[in-house]
Write the structure tokens for this entry.
Amino acid sequence: MSRYPRLQSLQEISEVMKRYYVQRSIMARLRPVAYVTSGAPVEILEAMGILTLYPENYGALCGAQGAAVGLCQVSESAGYPADLCSYARSHLGAAMSPKQAPLHGLPRPDLLVCCTNICGTVLKWYEALAEVYRVPLFVLDVPFQRTTPPEPHIVAYVSEQLHELIAWLQAHTGRRLKQERLRQTLQYAREAVSLWQEILAFGQHRPSPINAPDLFVAMAPIVTLRGTRKAVECYRHLKAELEERVARGIGAVPGERYRLLWDNIAIWYRLYRFFRPFMDAGACFVADTYTNAWTVALEVDEPFTGMALAYTGVFINLDLSTRLQTIMKLARRFQVDGVVMHANRSCKPFSITQYEVREALRAELGLPVLILEADMTDSRLYNDGAIQERIAAFLESL
Amino acid sequence: MHRRRTPLGFLTAYVPEELFHAAGFEPVFIFHAPEEYGKGRAHLPGFVCWVVMSALDQALAGALDRLGALALAKTCDATQGLADLWRRNVPQIPLFHFGMPSRLEGPAVKAYLMAELRDLRDRVEAFTGCPIAEHALWDSIAYYNRLRATVRAAYARVAEYAPSAFYAALRDLLRSHRPALPGPSPLPNAPRLILVGPALGDPVLFEVVEQVGARIVGDLFDLGERYFEADAAENGDPLEAIAERLGALTPTPTKYHAAHSRAARLLEMVRERNADGVIFARQKFCEPHGFDYVRLACALDRAGVPHLMLELEQASQAGQLRTRVEAFVEMIRGV
Ligand code: SF4
Ligand code: SF4
């Protein structure tokens, strides 16, 4: 990797994440622990001093450490079909067999909070967890956002459930939600989100100081530490480093020749290796739809309506034409020369409309689009030979 | 009902059929077809269940052009994605999306469900240009209650029928509203099975059960017995009656209701019907039933009830299914 200078702040973020897991497992003895989905309104739990852990992030970690396949096999032998989301299969495998899992699995949860704004899979996954751990489950049901902004009865439904969630958390933990703490947490979350937006915007520079795989590493705090000061600090440092790169004209991919857009979740077991042929050809992924999902701004003044709107409006919960507009806007704003889409067998909601998006990108922007079928953590589904060939042909065509 | 009704296709097990019926439509379920027109695969990745793939394939091939509209309730991610694709690619058949909640209990659910039903009613009225009269809603509710009573009566004797004829009649009913059950053909001492799965659209499954000499004594298909389990009240507010019925049904795996568990319902059925075993017939790539299988299978294991998991896909071969079902039935018979 010597040709490709690493960002120092990514090292810092990796350290923060290592400490995060260690600290949470120590603090788990003192404070209630909740597992939450990546689209859950974590600010509420954070403000109540409840420790949150993200099985999805853990799934990604298992993928990155090459542990996912073994854990998936554990769940498969318990009966889970091999075509289900591999985050769920990895994490359930770790829950059933913590000894063979990275970090010996996550600390046991006291509570489960599942928000359906990202997919229906999490509902089934959390139901399974509620049985494995015999702990209470709260399902925050977020309807599909058909129109932008969403219809008032959808906002009212989500907002009322947020109140219900607070009462439920209070009843189960004896902790109260102090409005002041909530404001502070929302403030941090807002700050982290706006820093994250700025960081993503750096991809607009030529050359771009940041490449998608860097963002996949950098995104961990916006997911897991949203609403904390730590996330804000990490992103201030990263932002400063990117500013410096821009000032000195340093690109993430030296000699940047092509600018590409990435769609879907990362391929965790090949995080940098996957991108190597692109980098060698001078192609930098200056934007992506995955890390962009955490850029929905939070309204602090009307916290409940604000949270209801933000959590209903997550990228993956939007109707296709709105998502298409977002993708088109990214493509234009970041002046990309082509698009690579990961047809991720695990994540049906993210992948099911990709052919449609490809057609629109070709027709409306005349962009070349490459769709590669793989899986975000289950490396058994990765056909290296075929993928390398198709990447080479795609790069040739640029 | 003198004027001819416009057929309205529907998908998923939570569409308020009564509402569409009252607006002058004839709701007909769109089953996946065994044959392929070769149109769907250009629009969907290969890792999507055949139920969704086939619906789009049929629509793109023009095989559904007789439909005046399509209705689809929020259930799984695959059908949600289908709704998006439908809007862009099948403009000749307008789509009504009904945001059925994923949670069926809790203080906020009822108000939301009612608001969503009212919203749907407004959208349907705007489309037909004609308000839905309250008496029309009541007529349709009564009509569906009668239809369901017929189906429940048939289910009460399901064990006496040859499985493929019974389920063919049920599919016809969901397509044409005409209950046409053939005569029963009892088979004493046949192994008694309960089937669980997403869809009824795989005749091969019922043929195989029949070929090995077993009988079906109940099911937990999304559009099977559970779909006819509860009626809508015939007094009060009609939309509320529809909402309460949707919430009262044994949930499909895409819905959450802590106190209304599918496992408990399945065990109860096994006991009531004296079932010898359970066959899961999951569509390949179906997430909700894939996860649900493990929960139900564990409950069956604890109760000592044998079960078998089959995976269905477009090209499900009777031969392969038969070998497995035969072995299962022999195990039950103790040979
Ligand atoms: S299906 Fe997709 S959104 Fe849902 S948990 Fe899996 S990867 Fe995440
Ligand atoms: S088979 Fe499963 S995935 Fe397919 S439409 Fe039915 S519930 Fe959805």
Observations:
- The mean pLDDT of chain B is 95.
- Residues B 49, 51-52, 75-76, 78-79, 198-199, 283, 286, 288-289 surround iron/sulfur cluster (ligand 2) (CB under 6 Å).
